């Protein structure tokens, strides 16, 4: 999977994001409640970021080592749960400030062929509400 993602980083593309999308021929297994909470959160984050991203919280992300990535990771984080959204927001702000092409032109999201929920996951329903609160608090 890492090789496939790395191959996406070419030309203008500096960020490859995985998306957990259940499609025919793909093995994507998530708990229903977690999937639906995630869809609500990802939709809200997509609106806030003004970026048509399907799965903000998918952990499968790979970055090209670039100046904007280095700048984005230098400052301390303001959130605990919604790190992914804060990072995407930072990249959008950095790109705009440096007159660089926007994330909509430099990021690619693609469905993962396999993603299986593991028992013992530390994400709980309360984390969804924490994420929403962080999103709302940091959008002001």
Identify the notable features of this structure and list them briefly:
two-stranded parallel sheet, 5 strands, 46% helix, 140 residues, three-stranded mixed β-sheet, single chain, alpha/beta
Structure explained in plain terms:
With 140 residues, the chain is an alpha/beta fold. The chain contains six helices and five strands. The strands form two sheets. A three-stranded mixed beta sheet has the order 3-1-4. It has a two-stranded parallel ribbon with strand order 2-5. The longest helix has 18 residues, at 32-49.
| Order of helical and strand elements | HEEHEHHHEEH
What is Rg?
A: 15 Å
| Sheet with the most strands: spatial strand order | 3-1-4
Q: Treating each run of at least 4 consecutive H or I residues as one helix, how many helices?
A: 6
Average residue-wise pLDDT: 88
What proportion strand? 5-15%
Shape: globular
Number of E-state strands: 5
In helices, the fraction of residues equals: 40-55%
The number of distinct structural domains comes to 1
Q: Which stretches of 5+ consecutive residues score pLDDT under 50?
A: none
Class per helix and strand makeup = alpha/beta
Largest sheet: 3 strands, mixed
Distance between the termini: 37 Å
